[in-house]
Amino acid sequence: MKQAEVAAYFNRFEEAERMYLEMDRRDLAVNLRKKLGDWFRVVQLLKTGSGGGDDVQLEEAWNAIGDYYADRQKWNQAVTYYVQGRNQERLAECHYMLEDYSGLEKMVQFLPENHKLLPDIAGMFVTVGMCLQAVEAYTKCNRVKQAIDCCVHLNQWNMAIDLAKQHNIKEIDTLLAKYAQHLLEKNKTLNAIELYRKASHYLEAAKLLFKIADDEAKKKSKPLRVKKLYVLAALLIEQYHEHVKTSSKSKSKGKTREATSALAGLLEEDSASISDTKLIDNAWRGAEAYHFYILAQRQLYEGYVDAAMNTTLQLRDYDDIIDPADIYALLALASCANRAFGTCSKAFIKLESLETLPTENREQYEQLALEIFTKHTPKDSKGARNDATNYEALLAEGESKLPTCIVTGRTLVDYQFWMCGTCKHCAYESEIPNKTSCPLCHSAMS
User: CA-CA-CA-CA torsion for 154, 155, 161, 167, nearest 10 degrees?
Assistant: First the structure.
C-alpha cells in the first residue's frame, strides 16, 4: 500500500492503480481517480467491481461527466449523463439551453407535487413566453399567485381571470380592472365588455355598452343598430339585478331567507353611486326611444299616419336621447300627413325655437311652415286621433303615468294587458297573438 502511495506521489498513477487493484482495494483506486478528476475511469472501475455504495458513487460519476460536457457547452452529451445520474436540476438546465421545451414539459409531468424544481422550470417557461406550461408548473407546486402574475406579465388575462376564479383569489376585482384598462387602452372595448360579462360584473359591462350606444347615437348611425346596442346594455342590467338577487340568496340562511335576500339585494343596489343608480333605473330608456323612433317611421311609410303621429308624440319624452330636431321634424311630417295641423304647428314652433338648430335649417322650417299654414288652419281635424290629449285627460283625473304599448305606440288604458317577462314592457293583448318574440327586447315568448 505504501508503495502504491509513493507511486501516486510521483505521478505514476497507472502503477498506483494497478497496485491497489492487486491488493483488492478497488475503493482506493476509485478515490485516486476521483482526486485526479478522471471520472470516465471511475465509471469503468465501479462497473467492474461490486459493493453496496457503488450506485451512489456511480451517480456521482455520471453527474461529474455531465458537468464535464456542460462546462464545454456540449448539452446533448450532458443530458445523457445527467439522466443516468438522476440530476433533475442540471437536466432542466440542459433542456432549457437546448430549447427542448417538450423535455421540460415531460419533467413537469413526472416531478412530484411541490417539488423544489417546479418554480425554476416555470420561470424558464415564463422567459420564453410559454404561459400555459408555466401555469401548469406553478399550480403543481401550489404557487397560484405566481401563476396569475405570470399570466398578467404575458398578457394572458383570460387565463389569469379563470385561475383567480378557480382558486377563489380575492384580488380578482383588481385583476379585472387592470385587464379591462389594458383592453380599453388598445381600443378593444367589446373584448372588455365580454370580459366583465364572463366575470359576472354586469354593471361594468353595461356601462361600457351604454357608452358605445351613446357614441353611435351621436354619430347618427342606423337607428336599428343603436337600438340593438341599447337593448344589449339593458339586458346586462337585468342580468345584474338577477346576479344581485342570486348572490344575496346564497349568503342568507334560515326561515327569513327570501326576505333577507331581497333586502340585501336592494341594499346592495342602493349602495351604488348616483350615476350608477341613474343608469340602473333608466336602463331601458335608450332602447324605448329608438324602438318608438323606428316604429313611428315604419308606420308612416306603411301609410298608418294616425298611428305614426301618436307614436311620435311618445318620443317627446326622449329628447335627451334622440336629437329633438329629428323628433319634431318627424312629428311635423306625421301630423301633417294625418291632417292634424294643430299638432303640426306646435312641432314647427318647437323646431324653430331649438337653439342647436343651424340658421339655414331654421329658415327652411319657417318657409315650409309658412307654405303649409297659408293653406291650412293650424287645427287638428276631427278624424285625427290624438292619444296625447286623452293621456293628459287621464292624468288630470288622477291617473299615474301610463305605460305605452310597444306594438302600436299607443298609451295603454286597458286594465288587462300583456307584459314581457324579460324587459317588463307592455302591449295590448289583442296585438300579441301573432308575435313570437317581444317587439322591444326580442326575447322569445313563453
Answer: 10
